Amino acid sequence: MQSLEEFMVAGVFAFILIFVRMGTALMIMPGIGDSFVPQNIRLYTAIAMAFVLTPVVQQYMPTPIPPFIALFTLILMEFVVGLFIGTIARILMAALDVAGMVISMTAGLANAQVFNPSSASQGSVVGALLSMAGVLFIFVTNIHHLMIYGLVESYHMFPVGGVPDAGGMAQMVTQAFSASFLIGFQIAMPFVVMALMIYIGMGVLTRLMPQIQVFILALPLQILISIITLFFVFSAIMLFWIGKFEEGMVFFLSSAN
User: Fold this and answer.
1) I want to staple 24 with a disulfide (CB 3.0 to 4.6 A). Which of 59, 82, 95, 106 is the partner?
2) pLDDT of res. 8
3) Containing domain of residue 214, as a range?
4) Residue 66: exposed, middle, or buried by beta-carbon count in 10 A (0-12, 13-18, 19+)?
5) pLDDT at 240
6) Distance of CA 142 to the CA centre of its chain
7) 125 with 104: CB under 8 angstroms?
8) Residue 155 and residue 166: Cα distance in Å, rounded?
9) pTM (2 decimals)?
10) How many domains does the chain have?
């Protein structure tokens, strides 16, 4: 049987490694890791989650406790794994920002830049709206539970003490980037078609009445039609994106298993 001292030392060792992976991922993941969440709240959430999950994933911790140099390497590897998992979730979230930028360009609102709290940078008006709605949908549909479950299941794909496959991680990040861009373009497809139809109508009107400044007349109409289109397809956009986001996280879990 373990003595109390051995149990406490092993528990603290496991807590540190779990906190590094969980905390790094949570600092980047959508929702909790967004810039509008205070840093102390993110820190407290990571500590609480690591404390709760320590009994669950402690079985994956190496025994006995390695020496200092090996322990430092373990902490560094856990940081890399947590950074990778959080980055994958953040890339899938970026599809909404891509869609918002494409929609703004087709709607004539590309120059209207606002602060996007989700990415902590300047972005399009529609992108900021979709990003904030995406965070809301993640919590409303309990997708954040799936992300936490993915962190727990990541110990199968990336066991503690193993060296992560850099090539496989880079390939998965590349696939996530391409999938995110494709999802964003698919979301913006109705607006691209609408803008194409407006430009065709402007071209025909220019040929029929060359003396009319069609661009001055068509821009307010283009913005109005884009806003009306967004009003009708907003719910479909968010349902489509949340389904793709869930598929991406489930793919990550199936890869882990």
Assistant:
1) 82
2) 60
3) 4-256
4) middle
5) 92
6) 15
7) yes
8) 16
9) 0.80
10) 1
Average confidence (pLDDT) per 10 residues, the chain, 257 residues: 57 82 85 80 86 81 73 84 86 87 82 69 80 88 83 80 75 85 90 86 78 75 86 90 84 58
What are the start-end ranges of the E strands in the chain? 113-116, 121-124
User: Which positions ≥6 away from 235 have C-beta within 8 Å?
Assistant: none
Helices (H), 108-140: 125-140
CA distance readout (Å), 153 to 88, 157, 190, 249: 15, 7, 37, 11
Which DSSP letter does residue 211 get? T
Q: Are 246 and 146 in contact (CB under 8 A)?
A: yes
Q: How far apart are the first and last CA of the chain?
A: 32
CA distances from 230 to 42, 44, 123, 206, 224 (A): 33, 38, 18, 27, 10
pLDDT of 10 reads 66
